[in-house]
């Protein structure tokens, strides 16, 4: 009986070892996705909108994470077909959840503008004048006739934090053609489209309060 149990235990141990080796092999075969970020570009108020008064530098803005539908509320890069169905760019992802990236870039752009005294996230304890509330409506690759475009559309509301009144609301959109194939070109076009939208939002925010 002892010999039987000893042999049985050896077989169990060998089986467990083989399973571990197989699991490690499977992990080694998993391909790492290309990871992309949104680049940071300083935004200077447009000359077309005039000079923003120095007094507005006292402004403090709260910027919550943008709202987004489930398809846009993750790290996957969205690709839309001509039929309207949604898929994701194979082998590619954002470096963080898309709403987090958009929030971080908007905060940085407002700070870099030099026209506000403070920009923060919820919970940072700032004495807030306005909230910049955003909604990511579109952020992906889509067909446009014979071309393929990167399309970014973000809705924004500027709300007085003291009385809850919406001071202004606007929808910002940009489309940039994708030059060539490959994940890098898709991500680069999306980054360029977002840079345009980000600049529009920052200029609008500084002139709307």
From TrEMBL:
<keyword id="KW-0732">Signal</keyword>
<dbReference type="Pfam" id="PF03886">
    <property type="entry name" value="ABC_trans_aux"/>
</dbReference>
<feature type="signal peptide">
    <location>
        <begin position="1"/>
        <end position="25"/>
    </location>
</feature>
<feature type="domain" description="ABC-type transport auxiliary lipoprotein component">
    <location>
        <begin position="54"/>
        <end position="201"/>
    </location>
</feature>
<dbReference type="InterPro" id="IPR005586">
    <property type="entry name" value="ABC_trans_aux"/>
</dbReference>
<protein>
    <submittedName>
        <fullName>ABC-type uncharacterized transport system auxiliary component (Precursor)</fullName>
    </submittedName>
</protein>
């Amino acid at each position: 009986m002892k010999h039987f149990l000893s042999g049985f235990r050896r077989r169990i141990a060998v089986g467990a070892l083989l399973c571990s080796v197989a699991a490690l092999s499977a992990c080694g075969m998993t391909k790492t996705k290309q990871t992309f970020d949104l680049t940071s570009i300083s935004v200077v108020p447009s000359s077309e909108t005039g000079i923003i008064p120095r007094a507005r530098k006292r402004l403090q803005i709260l910027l919550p994470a943008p709202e987004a539908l489930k398809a846009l509320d993750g790290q996957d890069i969205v690709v839309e077909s001509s039929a309207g169905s949604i898929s994701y760019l194979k082998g590619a992802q954002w470096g963080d959840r898309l709403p987090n990236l958009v929030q971080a870039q908007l905060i940085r752009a407002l700070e870099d503008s030099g026209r506000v005294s403070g920009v923060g996230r919820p919970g940072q304890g700032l004495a807030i004048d306005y909230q910049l509330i955003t909604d990511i409506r579109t952020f992906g690759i889509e067909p446009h006739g014979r071309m393929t475009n990167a399309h970014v559309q973000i809705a924004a509301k500027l709300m007085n934090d003291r009385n809850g009144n919406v001071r202004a609301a606007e929808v910002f959109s940009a489309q940039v053609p994708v030059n060539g194939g490959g994940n890098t070109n898709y991500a680069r076009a999306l980054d360029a489209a977002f840079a345009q939208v980000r600049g529009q939002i920052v200029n609008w925010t500084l002139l709307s309060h």
